[in-house]
Amino acid sequence: MTIVTKTYKVYSFIELSDDVKSKVINDYINFILEVISYDKMSIDMKKAIDKANSMQTPWFAGSYIYEYCLNEIMENVNQYEYLENGDIFNE
After folding, report:
1. Strand, coil or helix: what is 11?
2. Can you give the pTM of this predicted structure?
């Protein structure tokens, strides 16, 4: 029998590079848009979706979510630990 131990470098959000922070935020926004139903979204997220729809630019929904919900996004992404590439550490 062999026992193998794997070591990971784990980072808080604030420790990530700026490029990786942007990736984490974009991944989070995409997760919201793909997984969370409209009726389960926060009021500000609903406002962002409604704004994109009223402007007839649903492809900008992520940008509006970033604009309207940055505090909420930051609160959520700061709850996790990450690998250097921005993937959530889940061991």
Report:
1. strand
2. 0.87
